[in-house]
Every structure is written in C-alpha cells, then in structure tokens.
Design goal:
With 274 residues, the chain is an alpha/beta fold. It has a single domain, classed as Rossmann fold (3-Layer(aba) Sandwich), CATH 3.40.50.300. It has twelve helices and eight strands.
C-alpha cells in the first residue's frame, strides 16, 4: 500500500498546486497526482499547453470516484492517470460546475480508493475550510501538507486551520507539515517567523519547513525545461524525502511495539544549503 499525502492551503494562492506537481515530479516513487480540488483545476492546461501533446479524454476525478463507489481495487487509480509532458502521472480534476454536484456523494469512496492504492498518491485539495468536502481525504491521509505564504493575513488564520485539520486527523501531529513558500533570501527568517507564530499558539510540535518561491524556475519546469541541479528541484527532492519519514500511525502499523519516530521542528531543513 502506498502513502497518501494531502496538500492544501488556507487562503489565497500560496502555490499549493505547483508544490504538489513538483513533489510528484521529484518523488523517487513516481506517485500519482490527483487534482482533488472541488472547485476544479487547470493542471491539464498548465502541463499540456504549448507542448503539441493532447491530454487523453475520459478519465478524471469524477469517473475515479464513481468507480471507487463500487469498491477500491488497489490498481484502479493507475488506470485513471495520464502521463503528462513533465512525466507526472495525473488524475485530472473537475472541469465544470455540474461535476461538483455529481462528486458530492462520492468523496468517502474516493478517499478509500486513494488510501488503498498500490501507488503513492499526492492529492491536491486546494483551499480547505470547515465545509470542504475533501476533508474525508485529509482524515485518511498519512501526511498532511499545509502550504502558506508568510503574510499577515495567512499567518493569523494558520493556527486555527491547523487545529481544525488536526481534529480531522485524530490529533496526530506527526502527520502534519507546514510549508512556508518565500524567496530564498528570506528563507530562514520566514521559516522561523511562522514557527514562532505556531509556538505562540501552543502548536510548537507542528514542524515548519521552507520552500523556494522561484517563478522563473517554475515557468521553466512547466515548459518542460527541468533543471535537476537547480535549487527548486533540489528543494522538491528534499521535501519529498521529508514526507517519506514514517508517521506515528505508519510506524505503529509496520511493527508491533516499535517506537514511532517523532518529527521535531528544525530551524534549518536539510535541503537549505548555505
């Protein structure tokens, strides 16, 4: 069984979808990226535009959810994924409002299909709220990534959103990782600033890591020019490695009586280089 990682944001556009794509591309296990934002998605356009390639028709999040309702065979997810020009396997999201109505009663079965997949799965849930229908995916996930920018509006809301997601995830702090996206020159300042906000709210056990805001490198990536020696790619590889560290739940499930590896807040994530 693979690892299900839920990637989400609270408000605004902190780069959660781009982060999810980069994680899927850099991950050594070649996970399947599922565009699970109920508001719809544009990844097919982003990844295929200008390439001369045509995305395969048919299978998307709604068809996957429909089949999951009848059971969730472990290999079913891969059959719904298309190979994108950047090499990421993608389950396309909803394309119009009518599909939201069709998906509404199917989220529980969809979550079961994602968590029982043979493949690692990265689910991009978009902006979460207390009424987000994809919270059932968060509850099933092995890892929960919350993407944030270090601006005041997002930071004020962040502790409350984390508490809500922890309540959904049975208060397992080892599942949660906050990723702050900002320019390289502000990396350590912004990481420590977000950590300080959480510590002041009694959430110091929640780890905070930094990820580069690098628009030029992102644009090159989407255009198919992947610089595997560049800072963005190395950061994605480092974050993917961080997310493969077993959570309390995974460790207890893999070996009876073993001691779960605690994830502590670090001042400098391993992929930040001097």
């Amino acid at each position: 069984m693979g690892i299900l990682t839920a990637v989400c944001a609270d408000k605004g556009s902190p780069g959660a979808t781009t982060l999810a794509v980069l994680l899927a591309a850099a991950h050594p296990n070649q996970p399947i990226l599922v565009e699970a934002d109920p508001a719809g998605g544009d990844l097919t356009h982003r990844l295929f535009a200008g390439t001369g390639m045509t995305p395969p028709p048919g299978a998307n999040l709604l068809t996957l959810a429909g089949e999951s309702r009848r059971g969730a065979p472990a290999a079913m997810l891969a059959a719904h994924a298309a190979i994108t020009p950047v090499g990421v396997r993608l389950v396309e999201g909803l394309s119009h409002d009518e599909q939201q109505v069709g998906l509404a009663p199917l989220w529980r079965g969809l979550a079961a299909g994602l968590v029982t997949s043979d493949d690692d799965v990265i689910a991009d849930l978009g902006r979460v709220s207390t009424t987000h229908p994809g919270l059932v995916v968060v509850a099933s996930a092995h890892r929960i990534v919350i993407v944030v920018r270090p601006d005041q509006e997002q930071l004020v809301r962040l502790p409350g959103r984390i508490r809500h997601l922890l309540s959904v995830a049975a208060s397992d702090v080892s599942k949660v990782l906050v990723v702050v996206v900002s320019p390289e020159k502000a990396a350590r300042r912004d990481q420590r600033g977000v950590a300080a906000v959480l510590a002041a709210e009694g959430l110091s056990a929640v780890p905070v890591v930094w990820f580069p805001f690098a628009p030029k490198e992102v644009a090159a990536f989407y255009a198919g020019r992947v610089n595997r020696r560049g800072y963005l790619w190395r950061a994605a590889e480092g974050l993917a490695a961080e997310l493969r560290v077993p959570t309390t739940e995974q460790t207890e499930a893999s070996a009876a009586g073993s001691t779960a590896a605690a994830i502590h807040l670090t001042e400098e994530p391993a992929w930040i280089t001097s």
